Amino acid sequence: MPINEKVGMGGPVDLALLPMNSVIGENGDLSIAGVNVLELVEKYGTPLFIYDEDEIRVKLQEAISAFGPNVAYASKAFLCRAMAELVVEEGSRIDVSTGGEMAVAMAGGIDPSKIVFHGNNKSTRELTEAISIGVGTIVVDSFDEIERIKRLASMLLDSSSKLKRVKVLLRVTPGVEAHTHEFVRTGQEDTKFGFSLASGAALKACEIIKESEEMTLSGIHFHIGSQIFLNDGFLAAIEAIGPLVNSVGVKELVIGGGLGVAYVNGEDQLSMKRWADEVKKAVKASGIAGDVEVTAEPGRSIVAHACITVYQVGTIKKLPGIRNYIAVDGGMSDNPRPVLYGSGYEAFLPREANAQRPMKARLVGKHCETGDVLVFEAHLPDDVEVGDFVATPVTGAYGYSMASNYNKVPRPAVVFVSLGQDRLVIRRETTEDLLRLDQ
Ligand SMILES: Cc1ncc(COP(=O)(O)O)c(C=O)c1O
């Protein structure tokens, strides 16, 4: 559906895009979880990421009830110590894909047995760390890695270790092209991830692992991509992988992440439950044994919708016959998704969150690139002016986690709000932080 069809071009931002505990006051200003957004901005400055903490908790519970307690939150979507603590409190597993994510998850108090360790090129150092602390599962991605794990496990594991063998999942490429941007598509044959099903590499890897004394093959994993709205790619992948799951006799099938979320007015998304129900139906239909546990690794669908980013307008340029440019104090350094994938967002003013937005403008950042765009086709109220605060909703995934210091712009602060209280979970970077690594 085209952008804005649901509420009409120039209509207010669709309230369904705002965090779950959003309320618009009588004067039009926005509060999240009982905390006024303009007061937060006054307190912490801009750009500011504001997360509705209780929405994240609800989404983690939805994932657990849809896929069971072994569902893993994909921490690449957003991670800091406070986020890891939420995962611990809600009881899911956590998916990490680098030693850095593993360290932050551990700092949040996660039990290592609840860590699922991913990555197409895990270093010897990262694997040593993972095996030494006893991570629950390593998702094996290449033949080189199998050999590396065997060698490390034979050195690190002895009768006194917590682990006796390294439990692994095998990442398989099912040869399916998901309907999503090519940069976040990962299930096709031409990919750096996993073992090809079609070439027989996946079966060969399973055999090597099953024969090894250092590893236990607990299951098969695939991940076909991210921001996927149609279940057909998942269903095709399950059909393709079913015979392998049965022939190697594993008891776990992990379908990765990928559940799409609505970013703009008029977009629809599948619920976590519907995703799980359809996938489980397909698992049954494909003849996979009934005792195989089906689980997933959602990232975006847990955190994206829970967050808005608030910026301050610094410059407005109206180029007659061309377009209006509204420049804010952040940009591609706090949200690179529009530049990377051409992603769409809405924009609105938290001081009048339900206002009509007849003015068309390009919402841009402060970086030295023409491509530094936050919203290509933003709609805003006519009275937007320099000094105003502008917010973009659904920025909780792959925003802060992909943030950079390009142009030496300090990364924003992140706050969690819940039950009328706010807490700073990541402080704003300072000039000293920008010089921290210089010798
Ligand atoms: C292996 C794996 N699992 C899970 C995810 C999470 O995907 P999403 O955030 O789309 O749910 C990703 C993201 O790229 C991934 O690579």
Features:
TIM Barrel, 28% helix, globular, binds pyridoxal-5'-phosphate, 2 domains, disordered N terminus, Lyase, Ornithine Decarboxylase, Chain A, domain 1, 9-stranded parallel sheet, 439 residues, alpha/beta, 12 helices, 8-stranded mixed sheet
How would you characterize the overall build of this protein?
With 439 residues, this protein is α/β, with parallel strands linked by helices. It folds into 2 domains: 15-51 and 305-435, Lyase, Ornithine Decarboxylase, Chain A, domain 1; 53-303, TIM Barrel (Alpha-Beta Barrel), CATH 3.20.20.10. The protein contains 12 helices and 20 strands. It has helices spanning 37-44, 53-67, 81-90, 99-107, 124-133, 143-156, 201-211, 232-248, 272-285, 300-303, 337-341, 431-435; strands at 22-24, 30-32, 35-36, 48-52, 72-74, 93-96, 115-117, 137-140, 166-173, 195-196, 215-221, 252-254, 293-295, 307-319, 323-328, 359-364, 373-380, 389-393, 413-418, 421-426. The strands form 3 sheets. Strands 5, 6, 7, 8, 9, 10, 11, 12 and 13 form a 9-stranded parallel β-sheet that branches. Helix 8 crosses helix 9 (272-285). The longest helix is centred in the middle third of the chain and has 17 residues, at 232-248. The protein is globular. It starts with 21 loop residues before the first strand and ends with a helix.
